[in-house]
Amino acid sequence: MSFDFLDRVVEGFPFLLAPLSQVKGVTSPVITQHAQTQEAVAPSGNPLFRTIGGFGDAISSQAASIADFVQSGAHDLSSSALDKVRSIGEEVERKRELIGKHVSAFTNQAMSS
Hints:
The chain is mainly α.
């Protein structure tokens, strides 16, 4: 980007760069959503049910973290197993080529004798 552009970019986009509360006729969706959230947070109902719900949330988050742990472990295990299989395949290919060279050398020796 040119320095001229960087110096004048703010002049070209005042509506985009200004806070929405300062622009006439535009309401911010964040403010209305925040007001709705405060109404929903107000405690209501039986405290026993809220406690049970809190335990349920805690169990759910623990189950999610355990599932993530198991999934990452399985991923690591599968990737290490694939790496091992690849290395075994490369070793088998190397041995096959070596055996082929030995057979060829043995055949050449037998024919020259």
